[in-house]
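User: Here's a protein and a ligand (zinc ion). What would the complex look like?
Assistant: Let me lay out the input and then the predicted complex.
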Amino acid sequence: MSVDRAYFDGMEAKIPRGSVRTRFAPSPTGYMHVGNLRTALYTWLIARRAGGTFILRIEDTDQGRYVPGAVDVIYRTMAECGLTHDEGPDVGGPVAPYIQSERRDTYGRYAELLVSLGGAYYCFCGKETEEPAESKEIKKHVCSCPSLSSEEVQRRIAAGEPYVIRQKIPAGTTTFHDAVFGDITVDNDTLDDQVLLKSDGLPTYNFANVIDDHLMGITHVVRGSEYLSSAPKYNLLYESFGWEIPTYVHCSPVMRDAQNKMSKRHGDPSYEDLKAQGYLTEAILNYVALLGWSPKGEQAEQEIFSLEELAKAFDMAGISKSPAIFDIAKLDHFNALYLRSLPAEKFAAVADPYIRQSVKNPAIDTAEIAALLQAR
Ligand SMILES: [Zn+2]
C-alpha cells in the first residue's frame, strides 16, 4: 500500500511549535471527580506559568460511556473554576477538530502509516486468541500475523476479513523519563502487542492519545500514575513514527484513605457534589492544588493561593510521588478561610439558601444573619 505523503506532511505543517502546549482531555462521564479536577488544574497551571497554550480535548471514542449533557458538565466546571482554554471544541483552533469522534479518519491513516514504518501489523486472529497466554501475569498476545507477507495481508483485507492493527513490540528494553518519577526502564517482554485500531475502525484509548497529542503539538502530558505502565508503549510508538516525545508528568492518585482511590462509585464527592454541599469553588481549587503539590522557597509555608498566584508559583518539581489523601476536614478549613474573607454582600448571597433552611419567616432579612455568621 502506498503512503499518502502529502496528507501526513500537511498534518505536520499544521502543528504549532516553539511554546508550551498542554491539554486536558476528559471523557464525558457527566461529572468531574476530584482527581480529574486536579489534573485539569495542574495541566492549566503548567501552560499558564510558561505563557503557553491550554487545550480542551474531548475523548469520546469509547461510545459505551456516552452520557447526554456530559460535555456541558465539562464546559461548566472549567468555566466556573476559571480554567480557561485557548483551543477546544467550542472555540476552535489551528489543529481542530478537538473532539476525538470527529477525528476518526485520522487514526486509521496513522495506524496504516505505522504499519508501513514497521511499528505495527495487521492481525486477523479475532477475539478468540485474545485470551491470556501461558503466563497469568502478562496477557501477551502472540500470533503469526506479523510474519504475513504484505500481499497476503492485502488479499485478506480485500476479501473483507475483519482485522485489528496491533503495535509491534521489538525485543530489548525501553527507558522513559517522567518529570515526577524520573527515568524508568522496562523489559519489552513485559509489554503487550496492544490493539491500536479496533475492527470497527476506531482507535483504542492509548493510540488516540498518542496521535492527538502529537498532532496538537502537546509538550507536557499530565495524567494519573496508573498510566505509568503504558508509558513505555507510548515511547515505542513515538519512536516508530520518528516523533518527539512529550514530557510526561504522572501524578499519584487522590485517595479516600490509605488503601483506596477516591471514586464516585463509592460515594466520594465529585466537584459538583462539593459545590452542592456549600464549598466555594476558590476553596476547592486551592485545596485540590495542594493535594499532591507543595510550593517551594519563599512560598513554602503559604497555604492560601488564588489561581493567579498558583499560575506564578506552580513548579512541577513540587509535585509529590506519594498518593494524596483527600481530607474533608482540611477542605472545611480552606472553605472557612475563604468564606470569612468574602465581601459581606457576597457572603450573604452564598449563605442565603442555607439560612433559609432554618429561618422560614420571609420577613427576616437573611443578610443581617449572614453578617453575624460570617465572623464565626
Ligand atoms: Zn494475529
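Summary: The pocket of zinc ion is lined by residues 123-125, 143, 145 (CB under 6 Å).
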